[in-house]
Amino acid sequence: MAIFLTADSKVVVQGMTGSEGMKHTTRMLASGTQIVGGVNPRKAGEQVDFPGDVTIPVFGSVADAMAATGADVSVVFVPPAFTKAAVIEAVDAGMPLIVIITEGVPVADTAEFFAYAQSKGTRLIGPNCPGLITPGQSNVGITPATITGPGRIGLVSKSGTLTYQMLFELRDLGFSTAVGIGGDPIVGTTHIDCLEAFENDPDTAAIVMIGEIGGDAEERAAAYIKEHVTKPVVGYVAGFEAPEGKTMGHAGAIVSGSAGTAQAKKEALEAAGVKVGKTPSETARLMREILTAS
């Protein structure tokens, strides 16, 4: 079991024929992802060869790709200016899950396509995220599949690089699914969405949650954990050393007073029974202690 992504997931890549799309399609295929098509209106009908004697067809639209392949996941590797149109096209085609890797998408665009996706019942992950990986089954996005393995830990993280570090540090214990939700002010899937899914996944035994300064997502997640999550959760909040009142680049996070600080988030999580590490490595050690004791 896993959340959102399994070995049966059929993936199309919007922007597959671009440089980033080609590079990461190659990596996704190498990690076992079932990629069934690319989408590029200007190259419809073409085929693209990848290592391992794999040939992927290119379709003119997401709707065409879904009709021909039965795809149920789209991953978006298109420039920021075209991301809104790409997401709306996939939503209109009825794609159930859209993973948006693109960084630098205007927040107004994200607000618009997120509201539209919600109205149609489509799940978005991202933008500005590494995607998600169910180790040994499927990998959609830019996470290196070679740094971890399958297991019973669920991971939800705002930060791409901290996702990778946690996957690596706990690689011997392994993960059910790791979801990089992205660090933008508006993201399609939240900590709470993933916590709910992991709580309901019988093959996830414990959860790692990684947050960042700014906003109140972690405080809201803490309240949710207190009420609804029975599995052990360990947490880490990036930004303990960040100066107050300064906008931080990655998350676009601004800290106002005590709200949104790493310390405030840590205290909220601990009040909900979450063990919070001061560093990523300490967080990994806390999770190791929980799983090896059980």
Automatic annotation (TrEMBL):
CoA binds at residues 17-20, 43, 101-103. Gene3D superfamilies: NAD(P)-binding Rossmann-like Domain, Succinyl-CoA synthetase domains. The active site is at 250 (tele-phosphohistidine intermediate). Keywords: Ligase, Nucleotide-binding, Tricarboxylic acid cycle. Substrate binds at residue 164. SMART domains: CoA_binding. It is an enzyme of class 6 (ligase). Its EC number is 6.2.1.5. It comes from the Bacteria. One of its GO terms (molecular function) is ligase activity. It catalyses: succinate + ATP + CoA = succinyl-CoA + ADP + phosphate; GTP + succinate + CoA = succinyl-CoA + GDP + phosphate. Succinyl-CoA synthetase functions in the citric acid cycle (TCA), coupling the hydrolysis of succinyl-CoA to the synthesis of either ATP or GTP and thus represents the only step of substrate-level phosphorylation in the TCA. The alpha subunit of the enzyme binds the substrates coenzyme A and phosphate, while succinate binding and nucleotide specificity is provided by the beta subunit. Belongs to the succinate/malate CoA ligase alpha subunit family. Heterotetramer of two alpha and two beta subunits. This is Succinate--CoA ligase [ADP-forming] subunit alpha. It comes from Demequina sediminis.
